[in-house]
Every structure is written in C-alpha cells, then in structure tokens.
DNA sequence: CTGAAAGCGCTTACAG
DNA sequence: CTGAAAGCGCTTACAG
C-alpha cells in the first residue's frame, strides 16, 4: 500500500485538502471538531507529510550540505557530529559529502547539493580551485578556509597555535624540527607561523608535505622514509594522526620520546585526547568551531541580509603531554 | 536572481519544456539542432535540474538515510565514510543522523528521514525499542542488529571474535577478566560467547556495562572506579576506546601491560590501528561491512522483490599487539 | 470557519 | 521529431 497523502487524509476526515494542510501547519481558524477529525484521520492512516513536496513550495528545504575531507578522520568526525547535532537542534538535516578523493569529486558533491536544493553549505574543503563555491549563490560557511567574498571563514588561531608549538619545541632545546603536514601549501598560516619562529630562533626549516589525498599507509611510509634521528630531533605535525605516527616511528627504533625526539601534534580531538593522553598537541575547540559554523549558516539562511563576520577566530590551547621534554637539556643528546 | 527553471531554459531555447526535459533525460527522438539549442541555453543560464521536483514524480529520491550512534567514534566514522563513498558511487546521497543521545532522538531522526522520502535506510541503531523500523515500509539494512522480519542484518562474527579474545587471555594465564562494554544487554553475542569460554575454563565472570549514552569522560571515570589490580588482571573491552582507557588506567598506576595486566579491544578501526598499533584487538572488517550494507540496500531499492539474506556474517581477525602477553606465566604475578 | 483553484519545477503519456 | 496537458503532494492567496 502506497504511503497515504494529504488527499487520503482529507477524504477520510471528510474535509478539503486545504483544511488538512491548515491543521498540519496550524494556521488560520479551525473549529475544534475539524481539528479532531483530521487528527484522527492522520493517526489512523499513519500519515506523514511529504517534505519533498513541501519544499517545492518556495519555502526551501531544511537540509544543509556538509562537506568534509572524510568523517573517518577523528577531528572531522567530531566536527561532523557536532555540526549534525547543532543543525538537528535547529530543525535542519545534514546531507553528508566526503570530498577527500579529489577536486572533481568535491565539485560533483557541490553540484549534487545544489541540485538537492540545500538551504546552505558548511564546508571544510581541502581542495583548492573549487570555484563553484563563489558562484553557487546560496549561504555558505567555511571551516578554516578563505573561499571568497561573503563566505565567512570560521577557524581557530592557526598562527598562535603553530607559533606556540614551535616555540615550545625550541625552548625545550630541540634544534632540527621536521614540519609534517598533509597540506601542500607553502603559505598556510601554520606553516608561516612555524617558519617565523624558526627564523627568530635561528633554526633551519624542513618540511614533509604529503598531500591530502594520500592514504594513512602512504603517510606512514613517507614519515618512515623521511624521519631519521641524525637529521631531526623533533617533529611538529599539523594533525595528530601524523604526530602519533612519528611517535610510533621513534618507539619502533628505540629512540626515546621525549628525551631524544620531541613530537607535537595538532587538533586534540576527544578521541586522541582519550586514546593517547600522552601526546603534546595543539587543541582546536572543535565543538565551538562547529557551533559557530552552524550559528552563522542558520543566521544567513534565515536572515539573508544579515551582516556576518568575514572571519571568526577561536583560541587554541597548547596541551602538554609527555612527548616534549620540559626543559632544554644542557647538552644535546647524541645522534643515534 | 532566482535560480533558472526548466521554463526559463525552454523560453531561451525557443522550445517547449517537454523538449528540454527530454534533452535532460536523453529520451525520445531529438533533432541535433534542438539538442544543441537547448544545451546552449542550459549553459548560458547555468541551469541545474531541481532534484526535489524530480523526485516528486514517483521516481523517488536518490537519498539514503544513515543512522549511527555518532560519527565522532572512530569505528562509526569509518563506517559512515565507507557507506557514503559506496552510496556516492551508485548515485545516492547520504543523509546523516547521529542517534546517540536517545531513543526519542532516534525515532525523531527516523520520522524525519521518512518525511524526506529517503529511498532507504542503513542503521546501526543502539537504542532498542525503536519499533518504527518495522513499520516504516521502506528498504532498511541494519548493521549488527536484528530489527525484525525482512530487515537484513549485516555484521561480523561476534561469537568468534569474543571467543577468540577471551581464549587468548585465558591461554596467556590471565584469570580475573573484566568484560567492559557500552552495551547494556546481557544476551549480546559477544557477552554470551565470552561467558561461555569463561565457563569452559572455569573462570569467573565480571562485567562493567556503562550504557551507550555515557560520555567518554563518564566511561573513563567508571573504568577508573571499577578496575583495581587486586580484583582483575585483564580487561576485554567490546570497543577500542574503552580498551585504551584500560591501558591508560594501568599505565597511570604503574601496572605493567601486558605482564601484570592484559587488555584486548574490539573494532580495530584504521585510526586505532595507526594511532595505537600496540593494542591487541579484534578487527572488524569495517569497509566490507559498509560495502555489504550498501550493496544489499541498493539491491532492495532497485529490485524490491529481490530475495535478500536475513543475515550476513563477515569474519573477524584477532590482531595481536603487545597488550596481551604471549604465554602463560608459570606463576601469577603478585597482586599489587 | 472552510473550500476551489492555481501553482511550485519537473516528467510522462498522449497527440500531432 | 515536438508540444499541450495532466499530475506528483503539497501550500497559498482568494472567495464564500
């Protein structure tokens, strides 16, 4: 038996579809009797309004598109969970798109979201050059990315976070720090801040950038190929997964962390905080980032003319674990 | 400027909307000239078909609802990522619902999915008593849950996994094993299999079940309150996060793992495998589980009459790390 | 207080 | 090979 429609309910209740619609939306004057009759018919039929039909009537859909590299990553998984919860609280559904695989796929995802008439989009794109964002013509909020005019950028303080991490390593006496990042962009805020602190301290720069589309296995391999204790005595990684791979690399070779090798990560997702509380890392306020993305997007959807901040920068927290030593050693550990 | 519609394209190309629709769907006979004219009009206008309107026409929507406790959990994050990718490959979008918070919320999510006319649902519900699943009247596939007649259950081999884990602990000489699980169900397959192996070995049963809706912090607290080295010498946890909390508990108290305390986890998500390769755990084939859920659901959507297996059980793998010792010690370690 | 009619953006028989 | 008309399930002025 096909799902009952408004017409079925109207027939059963002995009223017009207009009346049923009014009961559903509680608008206009209704006699109690009609209200009761319609309510009963709805219950008996197990009727559920068709949101698809509803959204065809100008009011737009209450669905928001969420684009993340992949919810399999702890940080983005937690971000996605918080976004979904925030949107649900405001009556919006979340259409999920993982963009990890490529620019083409991200563009295709975007096309699909637009075709599905989403009310807005929250994106943490990692593919540059998706120009569609600028011409899509609907509310968009970006996580940590400048997508263009009129697209608010919500992020945490990358400059402060990276600078603090690098300074902490330098203060502890590490001298040859490898900067490990999935992001292949020389001018990223974290990389620039890191470089600046290195310059001030007179330390050399070394970078391993393996690209966002690389798999975890590829990343691990690259880290193992690049790291060696004669060239480096520390790693600053722009994500915790890489940082833990660096820790693992050291352990597997009998290199003591933090005495001989220091590691700082980035993100500080709840999973990592609970799974590996020993990691020293820069905590991003993922819940607040998500909440702010949701708040701004919903605001723009519901008040299209509202003035939104072009940038929102939330503070980070440097969380001390045990993968960086506390004080500079008087003498460098001998290279192994 | 509002988004262009079929009518706009038709006007611009100087043909009827019927013709534009036919070009879009490539059906029926079309002269090359008309085809070209319409194509040009579409490009010039930046026209994109409205999927919402399309799906109103009987053909149904190409959207699938995905219900997981939370994508913030590594296992479900990876499951969700794999489901999203599989569905995308087959032309379906993923509407994400986290159900963690409560039965009410899960029921509400389901209602919403139905209202949005999803073509089907993949659910890994953890709330019992959501009866709506049985009466929803649309294709549903469940991950590791028997929801009712006609709802395929895709899972990995819980009995083999739990039995192997418990046997491994017993073989290594651990005698007082605490079973730690978020799931509050005495008759779960893992718990039953665990109990059975204990019985055969003549070992006592002890369980800490903290409920799915507990937060990570609450779980950690419960673990710390319950575990003590005089009562237990091992923990078998039905998820890796709990297992790592147990490892952390031991470390923080100076109890040596695995010599004095053994730990086995469950899930073996890529994140955990990479972040904490030392953990001994039961690997669920998360990618295959997701692929199978997608395959069955799409099959049922596209061939409603197809006969689907009521149960699909995929094999698990016991992965040896270093949180369980290799052989039974001749003498038990003294309790601390 | 309630209903008939038009219309949202599309597709699908049915004519021509 | 192309178009006019009906209709998907709903809402919204407009009458009455």
How is the main sheet of chain A built? 6 strands, parallel
Oligomer: homodimer
What's the Cα radius of gyration of chain A? 26 Å
Give average pLDDT of chain A, whole number. Answer: 90
The 3D shape of chain A can be described as: elongated
Going by CATH, what is the homologous superfamily of the largest domain in chain A? Response regulator
What are the low-pLDDT stretches of chain A, counting only 5+ consecutive residues below 50? none
User: In sequence order, what are the helices and strands of chain A, one letter per element?
Assistant: HHHHEHEHEHEEHEHEHEHEHEHEE
Distance between the termini of chain A: 74 Å
Strand order of the largest sheet of chain A: 2-1-3-4-5-11
* Total of DSSP H or I helical runs spanning 4+ residues of chain A: 13
Features:
homodimer; 336 residues; alpha/beta; Rossmann fold; 3 domains; 12 strands; 16% strand; elongated; DNA-binding
Describe this structure in words.
The structure is a homodimer of 336-residue chains. Chain A is of the alpha/beta class. Chain A folds into three domains: 6-49, lambda repressor-like DNA-binding domains (434 Repressor (Amino-terminal Domain)), CATH 1.10.260.40; 63-155 and 286-313, Response regulator (Rossmann fold, 3-Layer(aba) Sandwich); 158-285, Rossmann fold. Chain A has helices at residues 6-13, 17-25, 32-45, 51-56, 74-89, 103-115, 132-135, 158-171, 189-201, 216-226, 240-252, 270-275, 286-302; strands at 63-68, 93-98, 120-123, 140-143, 153-156, 177-181, 206-209, 234-237, 262-267, 280-283, 311-314, 317-319. The first copy, chain A, has a six-stranded parallel β-sheet, sandwiched between helices. In chain A, strand 3, helix 7 and strand 4 form a beta-alpha-beta unit. At the A-B interface, helix 4, helix 5, strand 2, helix 6 and helix 11 of A face helix 4, helix 5, strand 2, helix 6 and helix 11 of B. Strand 2 (93-98) of chain A pairs antiparallel with strand 2 of chain B, so a sheet runs across the interface. The structure holds a DNA duplex (16 and 16 nucleotides).
